[in-house]
């Protein structure tokens, strides 16, 4: 699969969420931060983007801890985007 097609699929998953705030947050993160991620962080973001909003939201807000260190790094970046 071509990189552009993968990115388009990821964009669709990030901006077609059940929660509007997640649409906005993940879409902005994809545009601003995703291109700067390491390959491991990019993979972790894809894994997070595949989660249902009810699973992901507590991780984003910090009300649930993440045991995966790379996902935790990406979640910290997501929280930073959310604050701004």
Automatic annotation (TrEMBL):
Claim: Iron is one of the keywords in the record: no
Location in the cell: Cytoplasm
GO annotation, biological process: succinate metabolic process
Main localisation: cytoplasm
UniProt GO cellular component terms: cytoplasm
Keyword annotations: Chaperone, Cytoplasm
SUPFAM superfamilies referenced in this protein's UniProt entry, alphabetically: YgfY-like
PANTHER family recorded: FAD ASSEMBLY FACTOR SDHE
Protein family: Belongs to the SdhE FAD assembly factor family.
Listed name of the protein: FAD assembly factor SdhE
Organism taxonomic ancestry: Bacteria, Pseudomonadati, Pseudomonadota, Betaproteobacteria, Candidatus Accumulibacter
């Amino acid at each position: 699969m071509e990189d552009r097609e993968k990115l388009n699929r990821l964009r669709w998953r990030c901006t077609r969420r059940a929660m509007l705030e997640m649409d906005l947050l993940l879409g902005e993160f994809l545009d601003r931060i995703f291109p700067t991620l390491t390959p491991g962080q990019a993979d972790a973001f894809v894994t997070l983007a595949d989660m249902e909003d009810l699973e992901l939201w507590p991780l984003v807000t910090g009300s649930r801890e993440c045991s995966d260190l790379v996902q935790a790094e990406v979640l910290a970046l997501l929280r930073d985007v959310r604050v701004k």
